[in-house]
Design goal:
Keywords: Methyltransferase, Transferase. By secondary structure, the protein is α/β, with parallel strands linked by helices. The chain contains 12 helices and 9 strands. It has one domain: Rossmann fold.
Length: about 270
């Protein structure tokens, strides 16, 4: 069993890992993430203490599923691309997406998180693990800059300061010839609500960065252009919608129809 001693934003990776692992055990699973399910059994941690609800599992899985689809789409259009999976935690996206060997894939997170990844997951050709804080951009010197690059950051930017987010985005937009950046973002109201979630609050993690208007980033980061904006709880797949509890469906139905509530949390994809 792997011992974990994670606090603050690092500890939130246990929440998202468990959500994806447990969603993969549900009938009609979106992710079918056997690597996450196996990892949970190898970590010495009482995941039941999270008190995670099925609706929360499904919501986090839907977020990951959309980002996975965007990654697959980018790779299909750029077979020799570079993928930067920032704040990767223990997410098993590289196994779910299963990129071809000509893709250069980089997993980036704190050094102790990367060591935990090494212990839990098998090595994979074409995948490099980089241990570094996101606020330090020195790790970018280890990434080739002669290919289109996709940056995917799930559940990361909300924990960074605004200047850290902008510095990272500006550096990426200038260092690589072209590419996309995909991530989740929350309005100020959405961030305030997310920070009160009992599971994330228990970690002591501080949520800092919010984004009310996605077009604002186009002005703040030269070369960035919004491509896609998707609400976190789209109803496009009726089968997934039906998996929510009736109370959750009622809340999401209401949020979908009131613009300020719909903007609480979104998935964004930018070109550069």
């Amino acid at each position: 069993m792997e011992q974990v001693h994670l606090t603050h934003e690092k500890a939130t990776l246990l929440i998202t890992l468990y959500a994806k692992a447990e969603e993969s055990r549900l009938p009609g699973s979106l992710l079918q993430d056997r690597h996450a399910a196996e990892a949970v059994t190898r970590i010495d941690y009482d995941f039941s203490s999270l008190g995670m609800r099925q609706d929360e599992m499904i919501g986090l899985a839907m977020r990951a599923y959309t980002l996975d689809a965007w990654v697959r789409e980018f790779i299909a259009a750029h077979r020799g691309a570079t993928v930067l999976h920032l704040g990767c935690g223990l997410d098993t996206r590289v196994f779910r997406v299963d990129p071809p060997p000509e893709v250069s894939w980089f997993e980036v997170d704190y050094p102790d998180v990367i060591e935990l990844r090494r212990a839990l997951y098998p090595a994979r050709p074409g995948v490099q693990l980089l241990g570094s804080a996101m606020s330090s951009l020195g790790w970018l010197s280890q990434v080739p800059t002669d290919r289109p690059a996709l940056v995917v950051a799930e559940g990361l930017f909300l924990y960074l300061r605004e200047d850290e987010v902008l510095s990272l985005l500006r550096t990426i937009a200038t260092q690589f010839p072209s590419g996309e950046i995909a991530f989740d973002a929350y309005s100020r109201m959405g961030l305030a609500l997310a920070s009160r979630n009992r599971m994330f609050k228990a970690t002591g993690a501080v949520m800092r960065w919010s984004l009310d208007n996605p077009q604002d980033l186009e002005a703040q980061v030269p070369g960035l252009r919004l491509r896609d904006e998707q609400w976190l709880y789209e109803e496009d797949d009726g089968r997934q919608w039906a998996r929510y509890s009736w109370p959750a469906r009622a809340v999401v139905w209401l949020m979908r129809r009131i613009a300020p509530l719909r903007r609480l949390g979104r998935l964004l994809r930018y070109r550069y």
